[in-house]
Design brief:
By secondary structure, the chain is an alpha+beta fold. The protein has helices at about 5-15, 40-55, 65-75, 85-100, 120-130, 135-150, 265-290, 320-325, 345-360, 370-375, 380-385, 390-420, 455-460, 465-475, 480-520; strands spanning about 115, 150-160, 165-170, 175-180, 185-195, 205-210, 215-220, 220, 225, 235, 235-240, 245-250, 295, 330, 440. The radius of gyration is 35 Å and the shape is flat.
Amino acid sequence: MNILRRLSLAMRAAILTFRYPALAPTGKPGALARDDWGSYEYRLFRYGFYNLLYHNKVFTALERYRRQHLRERGLYRFTRPIYNPISRLVELEAAKAYGGALDWDDFSHGAIPLQNADDRVIEAVRQVFKWSNWGQRKSLYARNASRFGDAVINIATDFLSQKVRLELLHPGVVKEAEFGPTGFVKRVVIEYERQDPADEKPWLYTLEIDEDHFATYRDGEPYAVHADPFGRLTAEWDNPYGFVPVVLAQSMDIGEGWGATSFHASIEKIEEANDLASVLHDQVRKAVTAPYYLAGVTSLDQIKEDVATVGDEDDEESEEARSSVPVILGPEGSSAQILVSNINIADSLQTLERLLVEIEDDIPQLSLNRMRREGGNLTYPGVTTAYDDAISRIQEFRSNMDGGLLRALQMAISIGAYHRLDGFRPFSLDSYRQGVLDFQIAERPVVRDSLSKRDQVELYTQTDAPNEWSWELLGRSAEDIAKAKMQQVDTARQVAAQLISVMAGDNGRSRLAAGDDDDAGA
């Protein structure tokens, strides 16, 4: 059996089989037991299953292992994806990681602000981002990590166009990866099916990279796919960089090499919520369309009216099967009974509500979606205190993303320097070791405080803080503030002069009036 056939079977098995153990690491630490969490088949299953959750297609016909899934988890056979917070969680984390536009001028602000970066570094980063279309791809980078638990950046060099760029790969195409003690990739095998225009059928492309060499294969055999710096097609060439130009970033580092998603420990609770919600929905449906008890009818043939049927009677998952109850025939003299189970819907809804609250406690990031709609008049300090756990989770996710992106940028600049590409010539492969590339991605607030400026100005006013604080908060420049202060001083002087003039006039009239009185007395 060739490699392509084995890969196809592995992917098919991952799609058709519900691999429940793949959803959590169960191995023991150390070399005595090897964990399956990082195995290729388990990862393929996780990525596919997480993708169904993200698109809210779990428990539907698109989930090929649906019956096995429901049976193994003991769920209601008509469970549907009624409650699913995964998509909004992924979009929230992606937006909080790299929301907004890049600051192409100097990267001092924007979605990816840099610090400790000189003009040479900024110019190199700008070039890499432009060649990589990173203004758009940055969100996909974070979205992949949030959705799959893993995100992959391949630093690719195009010798024909003289460019180095950050290419995003689906984590499912990374068949193997070996990590060093600090989590950096020491060896990687990238493998996927491809079909060039001249090919009659797909073939298996394999790229193997370690710290010493690159090699490419076609269906397991060495095959020259890429051109070297001299334009020659070759199947194997030396790695001159001293590192593997691939970065694997994790949404949540659980010490397993491969990452976990923010929701991986809450999947069972989400399934239970959908189980209960589906039962309640169907129970309401049955109560509305309750069947008749036919007393004295021994056969449906006795009924003259034609009864229209909806859907395939043999299909357990049809709309009719969910909403109907079998007709029961009884002898003459019998009395009708309620044919729909009497479920206390109000109590069941309270149980469901408690379960949803429990899920949000597990994934506090979800509360940020409701903050602006239900947050009331919380000030910025109040928001950061009330949502501290959610903000901390977002900061951890963002830190993991920034760390991977920073390594990818440093690799890209080093590679561009080695090949003497335009914009990278001030650097070399030793630039990072020498500290030249020791720049960082700056911290930025998870919750913007611009909405609470009014509260801050009021606080400054109540505490008799200097007016300059309020002006600076509102974005006034030092020059504008100086002018405003001069105007205030001039205005105060004018008011004081007018007041003195008025008081002087009043005093003159008072003395005149007093003199008249004296004359009259005399």
